[in-house]
Amino acid sequence: MSSFIEQERYTCAIGALQSVVAIPRAVPILHSGPGCGTMVQGFFERSTGYAGGYTSPCTNFSETEVVFGGIERLRSIVENTYKILDTDLQVILTGCTSDIVGDDVGSVVGEFTALGKPLVYVETAGFKSNNFVAHANVVNAIIDQFVDKFVEDFLPRSDLGLVNLFASVPYQDPFWKGNLLEYRRLLEVLGFKVNILFGPLSGGVEEWKSIPAARFNVLVSPWYGLPIVEHLEEKYGQPFVQFPYTPIGANETTRFLLAVAAFAREQGVEVDEQHLKDFIIREEYAYYEEIDNLATFLLEFRYGLPSYVHILHDAGYVLGLSKFLLHEVGIVPKEQFIVDNTPEEFQESVAANLAATSDKRTIPVTFDPDAGAAQNAIRSIEHSGRGLIIGSGWDKELAKEKDCDFLSASAPSPYRLVLTTNYVGYSGGLRVIEDIYDVVLATYA
Amino acid sequence: MPEVNLSLPAVAVREIRLNTITGFEGTAEELVTQSRCGTIQERKRSFSQCLGCSTSNAACMVTLVQDGAVISHGPVGCSTCLHEFAFTYRVNAPLRGITKPTARHVYTTNLTEDETVFGGNEKLAATIRGVFERDHPNVIFIITTCASGIIGDDVEGVADAVEEEIGIPVVAIFCEGFRSKVWTTGFDAGYHGIARKIIKPPALDAEGNAIRRPVINVINFWGSDIFSAWFNRFGIEANYITPYSTVDSLAHASEAIASVQACSTLGSYMSSVLEQEYGVKAIRTSPPYGVPATDRWLRELGELLGKPEVAEQIIAEEREKYLSRIEELRAQLVGKTAYVTAGAGHGHSLLALLGELGLKAQGAAIFHHDPINDIEADESDALAHTVRDYGNVPNFNVCNKQEFELVNMLTRIRPDILLARHGGMTLWGAKLGIPSLLIGDEHYGMGYSGLVNYGERILETLENDEFVKNLERHAINPYTKWWLDQPTFTFLGAN
């Protein structure tokens, strides 16, 4: 039996409606209780996109639908959605109510798809999984029920210069917009066109249609999203390369580029080696010019800077930030807390990856979505020096209590606004540095 | 008056208890008349957008109790917006003199598929014990969800059993989203639970009469402390319910002389519980927004406290202090048009404010309508007062945040200003280039000073319209042209 959670840092399966909101001109249709959409909005805040938030149609289950089923209501809502909202793709997401009463949503969807409507459905009852898991279910549902219909126009692996990228979970990763654009910029260096699929600067449903045509898939994640690339491998024979954490800063970004380049070569791609080499040299040069400028400050600032860090985040960020902060900033990662409910079968590899961060120190890590327990653990730990806590808005009070510096970098984030900032890449690393020392220097009133 | 029944674990939803509706098209006067003669009928929509549900409103009333902890008995998603209350608690604490706001304790039982098959009672019991051990709160509130409701967990039974074991009140609050389309039912549910488990009967004197303390309960959200200044003139203190209250202050709410409310939608259930169960008088007239309502309210207060002269004195002073400024503002605002979207009680009050300041309300989208509220009929009907004091309001729509209707209506009538109360509703005013104003503090508009506050903010909003004008030129609009050309109530079915 899973146990209770204090201060959850992710939401339930229907929270993956944000993955639909992140697709330009797509609309989520909720077949759920009346509060699900508001809960998701309240969690992510400032996340309405094209037709999310109060724009999203919802059947708003009442007693009637619980007793008699909600199919009639759903049919009428879908029918009228086409009249009222101008959208390119509609995705029905079911809530606990619908799944418990056992509505046959597929039959209603069939009525509309028979008329050529781009309508998709996916079961996202909150009790079944969370939004990290359901993100993959939503993507796979769109691939199976929508993208696949156009496979004749985009035959599997027909565009050898194209790759699909699966990385940030939209909105759950507060930096998803910026990160996806940075991944695209990086992969373009290898000579690829890149489908990033989410965000206003992606290509919308036209880009989605071209998914099967891609030569291979790039997954940047320790575990979430893995079912997408596995599914695509099975469905369209696309192999995938997995980079198992969020690459932040020069070391890890170069490593990411080289890993994908190596995989591409294995796949018979002729990578322009000189171009890649030049790019890395140029980016690292610019990056280290900044670190050079900064080093004096980091080493000499006499009024106090953080020397260690606790991070409460998903597995990808805990790994990426720990590696980055230790080697490229000089902030030592102490006890780390992975609060994304990483499934047991992945915990070992994540822990091993964290252990590989340093050959001279052990970084203790806890896997537990109960962030309240993580906070209590941090309360009871004492380290010498000034501490930094990187987490969600919930952790601001903890940092105050512990007299630590605090950087808000995970959901929910009521104390910080993120628009298009990226933490991934060379520039992302520099931005993390800016953000950390901004909050540190702001304490000197 | 609807009977309060504290022997039942769950409060009756508003649709049943008060015949509340969420769909209406007409004028304010028609709605008031139909409410009086009982001909009002719900109209259903054949298209609907996300509403919001009772569970977050129940949470809204219990998460800010200083020494409590909250457990959402449901899947992990059903409590994910509660971090916003933790933010509110921390940010508004200084308004209530709390210098060191403590962390909010928000939990979910994290129901998974197993529990939907085998039941979640055991997990709930384990969670209550775990929360008690971790935080040692003075009360634990359990808010229910669609999933726990449908699988039929015995939340009341578990709460009572563990309560006995751990020795603090464990309050089961029944607020499943699917039970009601009127999410304010969640407020009632929160109060119902508090009334059943926390509020204690008042102490009795030698003759067996309740001992009353010089205190008035203020049932509100987390607005600034405007009431103390008024009450102190009568030698009375304010006891705020429930944000920033404590188990102790709630327990003694029964000993107050009276209860007032910032908004009748919010407060009338709690007011009537306190009156019916413990004899705490509920102030009946609608809250003090606009001159006539403020005068009525202060006079009723004065009468009730046996000090009518103090009320007259306050009125005279406030007039002296603010009337000339109100006149100036009126002169600048007269003839401007406005549209209001807000919850029932406060929306009616906003319409009063507009009327007082000389603006013309072109319409309103009010989230629900209670034909009668829990306190009493005529005297506490804020909409009836507003119509009587300032005249009829056309295009009066009862609409539970149905954005598609709001956008359609605003496109048609294009008021000079949109006044909203509730997040998310100003967006479309701004996208259409209409200066839009949302004031979160429900006390900001009260009394004579409130008219000045609002008048100045409205002027400022009208003046500083560059942002909305620019946004209008670039705004993304997902609504079809067809829809914007249809009559607003195309999808609002017949009675």
Give a verbal description of the structure.
The complex is a heterodimer of chains A (445) and B (495). Chain A has helices at residues 17-21, 36-44, 63-68, 71-84, 96-101, 105-113, 131-145, 176-189, 204-209, 226-236, 249-266, 273-300, 315-329, 344-355, 371-380, 395-402, 425-441; strands at 5-6, 26-31, 89-94, 119-123, 159-166, 193-195, 214-220, 240-243, 306-313, 332-333, 336-338, 365-367, 386-391, 405-408. Chain A has 445 residues and is of the alpha/beta class. Chain A folds into 3 domains: 13-145, 3-Layer(aba) Sandwich (Rossmann fold), CATH 3.40.50.1980; 159-279, Rossmann fold, CATH 3.40.50; 296-441, Rossmann fold (3-Layer(aba) Sandwich). In chain A, the strands form 3 sheets. In chain A, strands 9, 10, 11, 12, 13 and 14 form a 6-stranded parallel sheet that branches. A 4-stranded parallel sheet of chain A has the order 6-5-7-8, with helices on both faces. In chain A, strand 9, helix 13 (315-329) and strand 10 form a beta-alpha-beta unit. In chain A, 58% of the residues are buried. In chain B, helix 6 (121-135) packs parallel to helix 8. In chain B, 45% of the residues lie in helices and 13% in strands. Among the domains of chain B are: 54-180, Rossmann fold; 323-485, Nitrogenase molybdenum iron protein domain (Rossmann fold, 3-Layer(aba) Sandwich). The longest helix of chain B is centred in the middle third of the chain and has 26 residues, at 308-333. Chain B is built from 21 helices and 14 strands. Chains A and B meet through strand 1, helix 2, helix 3, helix 4 and helix 5 of A and helix 3, helix 4, strand 3, helix 5 and helix 6 of B.
